[in-house]
Amino acid sequence: MIVTVTPNGSVDTVLRRVGQPGEEEQQVLPVAQTAGGKGHNVARFLAAADQEVIACGFVGGWAGREMDALLQEAGVSPRLTPTAQPTRRYLTCLGEGQPRQSLHAPGPTVTTGECRQLVADVVAVARGAAAVVLAGSLPPGAPAGLVVAIIRGVAPVPLVLDTSGAALAAGVAARPRMVKVNASEARGLLASTAFGHGTVVEDRPEAWWAALRGLAGGTGVPTWWVTLGLCGAIGLVDGEPVSIGSPTVRVVNTTGAGDAFLAGLLLAELDGADVQAAAFRAAAMAAAVCEGEAPLPPDPARVAALVAGMVTR
Q: For residue 153, is it within any domain?
């Protein structure tokens, strides 16, 4: 069983524009509605592979009830912590030959008491879990210390952290088992005086590995993954450097790609795959999600085909 924690979850709606660019009124068609936020995306991808998943996070209002229902429809077991303010909504519009446009609110302003309750709820359900995934942004009112409290509270269960900014810096200092970030988030951490001492990373595997070794040595976090979009990903797994390219696909929507990468890593590790095989599966899942209009679980046959292509090229 895996527990995901999404402090700032959302109800995500994807629409497709069918009108002409520049029109004052745009006709749209509904594509999909999902429980959003990084952790909820990971939960959905894991559940689609028949993994038992419990999803934690804040929930409030009508949108919160929708989010809870969407998680259940995806095969995930919600164990959500109520808030007085409502869950946010996230709207994405796609159009052929038009840039993707996303609209979203900052999320509910949570109280100290609600934060304490979330930590207690996560700790209670994490007992006996194979892993905990803490992913996404913090809602207004939640201190960076919330991340620290969750990491320490679930120990010794291994925790995977995927967040940014102050929450990332605080969480790294609490020594999770793994950190998965994108290049921008990693560079932000490395630019800080607390961790990277202003390190600027060139886009070369050797430069990334050197930077990640410095982070691993300075923080005690043994495993790091940095996703690089269409360039693949760079990893340092218990001191072992890993580099993986990305399959060539027609990119429609990149939303959820990093979350699919993380889910692919976890699924491969649970299956006993080695580091390189896990990286292949992770990259293939991320690429397959990018081919769709919404962050929905990809066809396993498509993922397998992408992996086969990566192995043989």
A: yes
Is pTM beyond 0.85 here? yes
The number of folded domains in the chain is 1
Asked whether residue 7 is domain-assigned, the answer is yes
In 3D space, the residue among 241, 237, 236, 225 whose CA is nearest the CA of residue 282 turns out to be 225
For residue 220, CA distances in Å to 100, 131, 133, 195 come to 38, 18, 18, 11
- 11 falls within a domain: yes
* Length of the chain (residues): 313
The kind and range of the H/E element at 132 are strand 131-135
DSSP conformation letters of 159-204: EEEE--HHHHHHHHHT--SEEEEEHHHHHHHHHSTTTTTT----SS
CA distance 86 to 135: 20
Residues 6+ apart with CB under 8 A from 120: none
pLDDT tens per residue, the chain (313 residues)? Answer: 999 999 999 999 999 888 766 667 778 899 999 999 999 999 999 999 999 999 999 999 999 999 999 999 999 999 999 999 999 999 999 887 777 888 888 899 999 999 999 999 999 999 989 999 999 999 999 999 999 999 999 999 999 999 999 999 999 999 999 999 999 999 888 887 677 666 667 778 888 999 999 999 989 999 999 999 888 999 999 999 999 999 989 999 999 999 999 999 999 999 999 999 999 999 999 999 999 999 999 999 999 999 999 877 6
Q: In whole angstroms, what is the distance from residue 118 CA to residue 123 CA?
A: 9
Q: Is 188 domain-assigned? A: no
CATH code of residue 97 = 3.40.1190.20
Which structural domain, as residue segments, surrounds residue 14? Answer: 1-176
H-helix or E-strand spanning residue 31: strand 28-36
Under DSSP, is residue 4 helix (H, G, I), strand (E, B) or coil? strand
Cα angle: 56, vertex 171, 121; to 5 degrees: 25
